[in-house]
Each structure stands twice: as structure tokens, then as C-alpha cells.
């Protein structure tokens, strides 16, 4: 500004520097947490008044941007967006630069009010900044301010759940950045340099870094906006770009970055994009290491800060380990879906077909995979090798045979051990049990590939051994839903073991020739499955022991399937006494009838159990004939 003498200008610059320092202060007392920010606000107001007074001396018209209509500025349509750029990027007029300086103070006042939880006042100042910028065209002198104010308005409206309004501001900020980089691209003036003496101006490198960081924030906020709008693919793309840019600019907190990368991996694996998921998790593990070593227990006991840091590091690394578990588990489960036949066993023809297809495709996909990798790579040269080394330890292709499945299982099991070290039963009951359930599911995924039925049965026994004690000890009042999950899984696991034992026995002889030990073992497993299915059903009953007339949607299928399985299990119990066999068949019929009658009374339930319902209706017709034949034989014998 022409009328500002060097001494006056230096005083303004000093005030601005003091305001910045106060804004970043972390020394305010708990009972006055915004004291420094209030002092910074006063200094910013004084600067604003000085600028306005000198502007008046220069004959400028009043451009204070009084509040007026404070409705949010709508995102411009494509044709309007061109207007903010004017003709080229040769620089703004002196009047435009003065408006930008006033706008910058309005921006900082807006952020100050938002930081002190005065959102309406903050919005007013940000809108004033927007109005002042209407007098400017985008140039290297003010493009940073154009983007910053829209970022801040995007955050403000997103916090009010006005997602589409936030989207408009942020997408405009994105457009301004992209257009500027395409048509100019020189390191732009940072807003702080409006109030900096010439000898303290930033280097080109620092200008570039600050400008790129502002755009990184735009990407980050857009990722949140798209997530809230349900545009998950777009949100994942922006999140990935944000993480890449944070590493490139070296502007990140290692543990926060690692958790965000691990969380992003969960999106990729649900979409079957295991290469991307593995890369995110490998990068998360490597970058989390930059946070340093976990303080020893002795050091933690000596210092409250060290104790807190120890717990945070241990927890966040355990959370990353849990994301690795999900990666391995989903990879095994997806492979099972790919390879199983219509009764859930390994389809060997399909297996061979996929092996041949993979061999054919490996060379063709090499270039495509290289392109995908280059697009998603994280890190600098210092971290590339560490990330790549970790990636090599776990496959990202669906396992097609036991050896490949076992390698994935062992990686998952290693992370189970790591996760349980922090999420222990004492203090983290729900988390600990969820990890055990994932461990159980890993065994189940591996068992699918195991050809040796005896070894497969032992894998299921491991599942029982880890889940049964927990299920028995859990307090039914506080952990009812978890107990139901465990009951159902235990019932199904015993059922699978029973089928395996029978298959093993039938390879040697028919059912009529089973030895007493085998029959006893078979009946024991069958009874255990019945017990846990019945425990599940009992958990749905009222205190008087009655099942509800109408099953809630979340338990409808499990309850009807449990009834169907109990019916089937009772009919399979092996016994020599006709009276006991008759009793078992009557119990079986009773449960088949329940499934058929419930679906008849509630037609909407039929869709949830189509196969079970069809078989139940058949058995309701057939079992009475079998029961009558046994009764007839018993009458003859008497």
C-alpha cells in the first residue's frame, strides 16, 4: 500500500508475526484455553483497521465486505469458474492485491473465531474474505488465499452436515488449484508473505511446499465429503492421493498416517483389490515404525507422558495388526467362494482350471500390474524398499492350494498374536473376543484346503478350544449378543467335526459296522452341536422360557437355521434302542414343524430360509412314516 511508510509497515508485520505465534501457542491454562487466540484476534483487528485507514487515504472505496446476506456462496457452474482467473496470470492490480491483503486478515479472523467455537462469527469473516476476492482475479499473488478460504468454508459446512454445500466449496478449490498449475504453475505467494518484510520472504521451495499442502488439505476434506455422500470409490481415491501427498511433502504424523492407510486397506479388500490393500498395510506397518520404539514398562512407570505414549503406540500398532488379520481372512474366504462346489467342498476341476488360467495370465498381467503399482505407491526412496520387502511376505493372489493358503494363514496368525498382546481379555473383552473369532475363521479358511480329514478335524478342534471357554465364562447379561455369536459358531463347528468323523469312518466301513468308539465319538459331537444350537435358541426366549411369536430380523435366519439343524442332528444320532430312536425322531419332527409353521404364519420369512424350508416341509411329510414303522416294530416285539 502506497501510503505505508517502512516503519509503519514493519510494525504491522511484527503484529502479524505475534498474532501467528499466539495462535499456535499451547501454553494456555485449562480454565482459559483460548486466551492466546483472543490476544491474536485483537492484533488481527488492529492490523485490519490500519489497512483500512491507509486504504481510505489512498482513496479506495469501502470494501470491508459487511456481512449483508450471509447465505453460502453456491459452487459456480463451469462457465462461471473461468471468471476468477481473468485473462492469464500476469499478476493482479494494486487494488486487487490490497483487497487480497484485507481478505487475508478476514480469513485469519474467521479461522480464529472457528477455533474459539464461534462458528457464526467465523463464517461471517470467511464470507467477507470471499467478497473481497470478488475484486481479484486468480494470480500467483492470491491463489493460495482463494484455496484456503474455500477449504475452511468446506470444513465449516461439513461440520454442520451440509455436505453438498461443503462439496461445492471444496470442488471449486480443487478446480482453482488444477487450473492454476496447468496455466501458470510457479510457486505462488503464501498468505503470510502479505505481512512479511522483504528480507523474510519465503524461498521458492517453501512456497511450493505450503501451496501443495493446502491442496493436500483440499483432497483430504473431499475424501470425507465423498464418503459422507456414499461415493465410496471416489472417497478411496481421494484418501489414497492425500496419503501419497502427505508422504511426499513430509507433512504427517506417522501413527495417524499409518492408521489411515490401514483403514483404507479395508475398503480395498472388500472390493477384492488385494494388491492395493496389501500395499496400504505394508506402508502402514513401515510408517508406523517411524513413530519410534514403544517405551519400556519401566520408563512408562516413571513418567506419565511415557506411559500415555506407550499405550497409544501399542494400541495403534495392534489396530494395524487387526487390519492385517482381516486382509488374510478375507483372502482365504474369497478363495473358498471361488473354489467350493455346491456342498461347500473343494472343486478340484475348478481348482485346476484356475491354476491353468493363472499361468496363462501371469505374463499378460505383468505390465498392467506394474501400472497399477506405480499409481498407488507410497513413500520415498527411503521407504520403498522396506514396503516392498514386507509385501513379498504375503501373497495378494487368491490361494489355489493348501501350501498357498497356509502361508496366508500363518501371516494372519502372527498378527493375531500381536493384536492379542494389547487387546487382552482384561480390559478389552469385546475386542479380544473379536480377534479370537477371526483366529477361528482363519482356521476354518485353512481347513477348506486340507485334504487330510483327520488334520481338518483337528483344525476345527482348535477353534472349539479357543471359543468354548470364553462362551461358558461370559456374563450373559452384559455380553448376550457376543455369546449368541459364539454359541452358533460352536454349534456349527461341532457339526462340521461330526460330518468329518463320519466321513472318515465311512471310508473304512458302512454306518452299520461302526465300532463303539466311533459311534460314541460321533454321538458326542452331534450332542454338543445340538447343545449349542439349543443354547442359542434359549437365549431368544422370554424369562418364562417362551420363544417370541415374531422373530426380529437380525435373528430370524439364525433362529430358523438353528431349528433346522437341531432337527437334522436329532435324526442322525446313532442308537440301538428303538425307544430312544423314536424319542429323537419326534424331537426332529417337532423342530422341522416349527420351521414350516413359522414360515406359514410369517410368509415374509420364507425368503430368508428357502432351502431349509423346502427340506423341512419334505421331512414333515416323511418322518411320520418312519416314526410309525418304528412304533409298529416295537409293538411286534412286545
UniProtKB/TrEMBL annotation:
Keywords: Cytoplasm, Cytoskeleton. Residues 349-361 have a biased composition (Basic and acidic residues). Residues 59-82, 349-373 are annotated as: Disordered. One of its GO terms (biological process) is microtubule cytoskeleton organization. Pfam families: KBP_C. It is found in: Cytoplasm, Cytoskeleton. GO terms for cellular component: cytoskeleton. The keyword Cytoplasm applies. Activator of KIF1B plus-end-directed microtubule motor activity. Required for organization of axonal microtubules, and axonal outgrowth and maintenance during peripheral and central nervous system development. Belongs to the KIF-binding protein family. This is KIF-binding protein. It comes from Dicentrarchus labrax. The lineage of its organism: Eukaryota, Metazoa, Chordata, Craniata, Vertebrata.
